[in-house]
Amino acid sequence: MERLLYFVVCANIWIGFSESHQILSSGGMKEWWESTLIYQIYPRSFKDSNGDGYGDLNGILERLDYVKEIGVDTIWIQPFYKSPMADMGYDVADYRAVDPMFGTMDDFKRLLKNSHEKGMKVIVDFVPNHSSDQGEWFKLSEQRIEPFTDFYVWKDGKRINETHTTHPNNWRSVFRGPAWTWSEKRKQYYFHQFAPQQPDLNYYNPRVRREMEDVLRYWLDLGVDGFRVDAVNHLLEAEHYADAPAGIKGGLGVIEGVSMVYMMRQPGNLQLIKSWRAVLDEYVKKDGQARVHDCEKSVATCPPELLADKCRGSKAGPQQPPQHLQTTR
User: Fold this and answer.
1) CA-to-CA distance for 263 and 95, rounded, in angstroms?
2) Distance CA 187, CA 174 (A)
3) Rounded Cα distance, 53 and 44, in Å
4) Closest C-alpha among 39, 89, 22 to residue 319
5) Reported pTM
6) Distance CA 278, CA 102 (A)
7) What H or E segment, with its residue span, contains residue 183?
8) H or E stretch including 215?
9) What span, in angstroms and rounded, lies between the C-alpha atoms of 303 and 133?
């Protein structure tokens, strides 16, 4: 049981299979991500290097030789960005900063350098659907300070009578309850597919798209070898923001009796994913080194158009979904 718990909170080993990367592949040679063994690390519970009770980046560095010895050649580090930790770090307050709980940017650079020296690759999480409500972007948006006014999805309430309003529609959060939270400061509701502390970014705003592409470039410039992209099925929502129909109880994509048809699997999601893959390909063309771009996928979350796109032989989207193998080592 102890070993199983260690697997659940610390690590998950998986092997990614994919078709050949067309920019670099030649003569039938496979890229590193096509057969790599990847060790998934949640840093907070992995290894505490300084006795404060929390795992950290230096703790990963201390155990790097062990990870290498068991045959792993790629590590995937879950969020270590600055965060209030309302959702295990998936509520990012600053996409370009390391949370002090995990160390410093110099610690990350040292971990990256040592990994590469050992012939290992490093993949990090990219959390594009939402940020933290404690981040500067949201605080400025809440105050209607440009260019952040429309960085998030803000809506007026639905009027009930002359004096009262309610949520803009009946959409439900993945974490249950309304997908809208009132901001007393802005006098509007903001949209969140997950926790209220995780406001959704507004990808109908070109500035948001450019900003998140620059986030990718920031980490690529530091030398990371790729990204695991979180919550890709939730990136866009239907622009009409109409009430969703009722769903079949227990059905896929149904929360508290309401269908998520307007919140998930929107047509523009695939184009966003392709735009991020294009950023990685910029770097591949510069130095000839392949990068991996893998999206969170499961039966519930994998966008069907993404799989269809791969079946048609497209090379513009992410590499193929990983096959997850549980380990109790």
Assistant:
1) 24
2) 24
3) 9
4) 22
5) 0.84
6) 30
7) strand 180-183
8) helix 206-222
9) 27
